[in-house]
Amino acid sequence: MKKKIICAILLVSSIVVLSACGSQDQNAEKVSDMETQSSNDSVPEWLESFYNSSYEYRKSTIVLENDIEDTIAVVEGKVEASPYKEHIKIVEPAESSWSEAWFYGDGDDVTAILNVENDYVLQNTRRSYPYGYGSNLSLSKDRTEEYNGISCDVYTAEYTVDLTERINQESEEAIITEPITAVVSQEYYVDPEQDQLLCMITDASDRQEKTEIANRVMNDNITVEEAQKLVSVDEVTKEKMEILSYDDSISIDIPEI
């Protein structure tokens, strides 16, 4: 099969932005004395373990508008921690332009291979990490809630993303000169007996809106204030990342092209 080199930046690992872990248990136990972990403290063991483990996962992008929930994208994948490899398959939508992808490499600069209509597309890209990776997270134990039959501790966190800085870094020039920041909030479902992260739900609504504002600034050559008047996002967009299994024996075969 012939190789195709694509110059555009691939943001595949974050293609899925998902919503809530289903409806919340109305009898969920609220934790009266909020257990807070300062961002100056070390990363909790269950989160550090997740970042450094091999695992299988499912990501769903869920949009909520007018109290109606719609799953617009689902991917399933697996990660080999060391050396880093990742393989993902599109579950929904069926009409996606590509069906599966592989990522591999050292550090942040990695190689991506896409299966596009039974042909391979090769490109260099930046490694995409789970939401919250590398950020100073202030984790608070919010409640106890059942997830897949397991009584989980639910931790919450919130952090700010500097979109201006990221866009300018990726483009290697100061395309946007005004500050554009977005707030990302998360919920982490942790099995306290196994000390394992089972599910992570990220509300990326503000980030999506601010990204649209940034696109307006770049494409229409207008100010951030002018772009804000043109962009109105009423829907809530969340990413639900479910860890299906942890398995250090995972081995991913990269296609030879």
Structural write-up:
Mean pLDDT is 84; it is low at 1-40. 26% of the residues are buried. Helices cover 15% and strands 44% of the residues. Helix 3 packs across helix 4. A 12-stranded antiparallel beta sheet has the order 1-8-9-10-11-12-2-3-4-5-6-7. Strand 4 (85-92) and strand 5 (100-104) form a beta hairpin. With 257 residues, it is α+β, with helices and mostly antiparallel strands.
Question: What features would you highlight for this structure?
Answer:
257 residues, alpha+beta, 12-stranded antiparallel sheet, 12 strands
Write the layout of secondary structure elements.
Blueprint lengths: L28 E9 L7 H7 L3 E11 L2 E13 L4 E8 L7 E5 L4 E8 L2 E8 L12 E9 L2 E13 H9 L9 E11 L4 E8 L1 H16 L3 H7 L5 E11 L11
Helix pairs in contact: 3-4
Number of helices: 4
Strand ordering within the main sheet: 1-8-9-10-11-12-2-3-4-5-6-7
Average pLDDT, rounded to a whole number, is: 84
Distance between the termini: 7 Å
Backbone shape = globular
Secondary structure: number of strands: 12
* Biggest sheet record: 12 strands, antiparallel
Q: Percent range for helical residues?
A: 10-25%
Task: Write a short abstract of this structure.
With 257 residues, the chain is an alpha+beta fold. It is built from four helices and twelve strands; from the N terminus they run E-H-E-E-E-E-E-E-E-E-H-E-E-H-H-E.
